[in-house]
Write a structure and sequence with these properties.
Blueprint (H helix, E strand, L loop, with lengths): L12 E5 L22 E6 L10 E7 L2 E6 L4 E5 L15 E6 L3 E6 L4 E5 L15 E6 L3 E6 L4 E5 L15 E6 L3 E6 L4 E5 L15 E6 L3 E6 L4 E5 L15 E6 L3 E6 L4 E5 L15 E6 L3 E6 L4 E5 L15 E6 L3 E6 L4 E5 L15 E6 L3 E6 L4 E5 L24 E6 L3 E6 L4 E5 L23 E6 L3 E6 L4 E5 L15 E6 L3 E6 L4 E5 L15 E6 L3 E6 L4 E5 L14 E7 L3 E7 L8 E8 L2 E7 L5 E7 L8 E2 L4 E2 L6 E3 L9 E7 L2
Antiparallel strand pairs: 1-50, 2-43, 3-4, 4-5, 6-7, 7-8, 9-10, 10-11, 12-13, 13-14, 15-16, 16-17, 18-19, 19-20, 21-22, 22-23, 24-25, 25-26, 27-28, 28-29, 30-31, 31-32, 33-34, 34-35, 36-37, 37-38, 39-40, 40-41, 42-43, 44-45, 45-49, 46-47, 46-48, 46-50
Length: about 675
């Protein structure tokens, strides 16, 4: 979403070693210093966005997914995505409220407009025409409600229990809630009205439900918070979800789950009762400073005052996993519905679809130097040349059927320098230029998803790069020749005869791409969304990536350009996006590692220039930004001294001559200051 993402501020100063042992990075046309700004991960398109502490303002949960609202009106979602309920529409901006149904989500925008997405079998995601000036939304299992500014309510979606049929004459409503198949309204006078399914008497409002200030609906039970801080509950009670703990008081918020209930007290603590088969009612003893609560069918979520989230309960779809911000990213990889990030300390962070264990990073995984995410599995390459895999194909209880063994690494595999993960197969490039592949499409395999993608071409050697598509594989040799094999129904494994001088390759779902030494991009294979139609005016590129239906090129100025599908905003590059280091395309989303700029952040060091015997420091700056340059003789030294007065960052004054420096200056510290 173009307006729905923001970069995360990096440190306010960078320290550079002046040993002049520069290294070439990212295919840049110039030398870059080893130490630069840390890599910040940026995410756009559908699915979830890693969150920073302090960003979240509200939370909602239902079924097996979690939805949060950020302070700037964005939405993030994770957990079960079987109906696209975690795929946030591009138009979901300036959101002020969210509600989660079993498999759909409602969002209320600041202008009173209601958005809906996810499962629409009963029309629950088709907002009726004319629903405007809404002030609240509520999502049931298969139905939806909207409270309008005039106190009336509109309902749509499933109605087999009358849950979407608003009682005649209902006006002056000030709040709404939706259970599995029943609906609740709170009127301005503190009375409650409930309609819909009544198998468990969840619509029979008890006489004690008076002076009500908040309402909530669980699967088949109803909750009401009274003005005196006490709670009344009724309906299904087979797990004790309607049996309010004796003495519960000072409650300020309530939430109803599938078979359990939550209450937030004025002191910031949470009380839970009802079913706890998956631990959904087992509140952490240390949980405090909570300001919001939400309950899914079998999980619970709490938002603390500092903007952090805590979740507990059933985690079969990763709904309890809390994505965190990443400011030290080295590499990213987008899989079918999960995402992996390699961090600077060699650790791996994975989130998204949890069904086959593809987000279960092994606890002892360290010293990782590369990652790859397939459709349902994840690979990690360690510094010692060994490969670790998890997710589908591992043979565990969570495995996908049929079993393809894509996560079963060959026991003798070692000396690996690169990895690639396809739809149902895996690849490894060894230091001797040979390739090993396993999973679907191995020698002798046949049947569904077996296209020979793991059966290597005879004599393949001197390979320097590999890529894996959904059902096909690519390899590039040291002389720039590209090989392709596997499924070829769209020509994705038929390399153009004119392709020579390749320096990089990428495999999408059913298409392939290669970057030539002259910066030109060549693509072939399926192009139903234009993913193989390289723009005629594409500038020279230095990097390449392919998603399921879209393709990316990193240009020489480190901006990016994409083509192909944009149904979920996967090509809507954030307008503020700074220099891109690396990029990865997923099913309908994009991940990138960038260097985040700011008027008060360190400049992006472009490198050193050595002209006529003089070393000069050169950085790429923003207009009207000033930089303070200091030197020291040892890293970590407390003695930094100015090397010059503040330098204007307005070009062409972005070059600092070091020839006049006296003393043993081995390190520079460059700090941005207000103009």
């Amino acid at each position: 979403m173009k307006s729905g993402f923001r970069w995360i501020r990096a440190v306010c100063a960078i320290i550079l070693c002046l040993s002049f042992s520069a290294i070439a990075q990212e295919g840049l046309p110039y030398w870059r210093l080893p130490l630069t700004n840390r890599g910040v991960m940026v995410f756009w398109g559908n699915r979830i966005l890693p969150l920073s502490v302090g960003e979240i303002s509200n939370v909602a949960a239902r079924g097996s997914h979690t939805v949060v609202l950020t302070r700037d009106g964005r939405i993030a979602a994770w957990g079960n995505n079987g109906f696209g309920q975690c795929e946030i529409p591009v138009s979901a901006t300036q959101v002020v409220a969210v509600s989660a149904g079993l498999h759909h989500v409602l969002a209320l925008q600041a202008n009173g407009k209601v958005l809906a997405w996810g499962d629409n079998l009963y029309g629950q995601s088709t907002v009726p025409f004319g629903v405007t000036n809404a002030v609240a939304v509520a999502a049931g299992h298969h139905h939806s409600l909207a409270l309008l500014s005039d106190g009336t309510i509109v309902g749509w979606g499933a109605n087999f229990s009358g849950q979407s049929t608003i009682p005649p004459g209902l006006t002056n409503a000030v709040a709404i809630a939706a259970g599995a198949n029943h609906s609740v309204a709170l009127r301005y006078d503190g009375t409650v009205l409930v309609w819909g399914n009544n198998w468990f008497f969840q619509t029979n409002v008890p006489a004690t439900a008076t002076a009500v200030v908040k309402i909530a609906a669980g699967g088949n039970h109803t909750l009401a918070l009274r003005s005196d801080g006490t709670v009344v509950a009724w309906g299904a009670d087979n797990y004790g979800q309607s049996t309010v703990p004796i003495g519960l008081s000072n409650v300020v918020d309530i939430a109803g789950g599938g078979y359990h209930s939550l209450a937030l007290k004025s002191d910031g603590t949470v009380v839970s009762w009802g079913r706890s088969l998956f631990g959904q009612s087992q509140v952490l003893p240390t949980l405090s400073n909570v300001v919001r609560i939400a309950a899914g069918d079998d999980h619970s979520v709490a938002l603390r005052a500092d903007g952090s989230l805590v979740a507990w309960g059933w985690n079969t779809h990763g709904q309890v996993f809390i994505p965190g911000s990443v400011t030290d990213a080295v590499a990213v990889s987008a899989g079918g519905a999960h995402f992996a990030v390699l961090r600077a300390n060699g650790s791996v962070m994975v989130w998204g679809d949890f069904l086959y264990g593809q987000t279960n990073v092994p606890s002892d995984l360290t010293n990782v130097i590369a990652i790859a995410a397939g459709d349902y599995h994840t690979l990690a390459l360690r510094a010692n040349g060994t490969v670790v895999a998890w997710g589908a194909g591992s043979g565990g209880q969570q495995d996908i059927w049929p079993h393809y063994a894509q996560s079963t690494v060959p026991p003798s595999l070692s000396g690996v320098v690169a990895i690639a993960a396809g739809g149902f197969h895996s690849m490894a490039l060894k230091g001797d230029g040979t390739v090993v592949a396993w999973g679907a499409g191995t020698n002798g395999s046949s049947g569904w998803n077996h296209y020979g993608q793991s059966t290597l071409p005879s004599g393949l050697s001197q390979v320097v790069a590999i890529a894996a598509g959904r059902f096909h594989s690519l390899a590039m040799t040291s002389n720039g020749v590209v090989y392709a094999w596997g499924e070829n129904s769209f020509g994705q494994s038929t390399v153009p005869s004119s392709l020579t001088g390749a320096v990089a390759i990428a495999a999408g779902g059913l298409h392939s791409a290669a970057l030539r030494s002259d910066g030109a991009v060549v693509a072939w294979g399926r192009s139903n969304e234009g993913q193989s139609n390289v723009p005629l005016d594409l500038e020279p590129a230095i990097g390449l990536a392919a998603g399921e239906y879209h393709t990316w090129a990193i240009l020489t100025n480190h901006t990016v350009r994409g083509w192909g599908s944009n149904g979920r905003g996967e090509r809507d590059v954030p307008s503020w996006l700074p220099r891109v280091r690396t990029i990865s395309g997923g099913f309908s989303n994009t991940l990138a590692v960038v260097t985040a700029p700011s008027a008060l952040e360190p400049p992006q060091i472009a490198g050193f220039e050595h002209i006529s015997g003089t070393w000069r420091l050169r950085w790429e700056s923003q207009t009207n930004v000033w930089y303070r340059v200091e030197g020291a003789s040892a890293l970590g030294s407390s003695s930094w001294w100015p090397l010059t007065t503040n330098l204007s960052g307005t070009p062409p004054t972005n070059v600092y001559d070091l020839s006049g420096v006296t003393g043993p200056v081995l390190f520079l510290r460059v700090t941005a200051e207000p103009p």
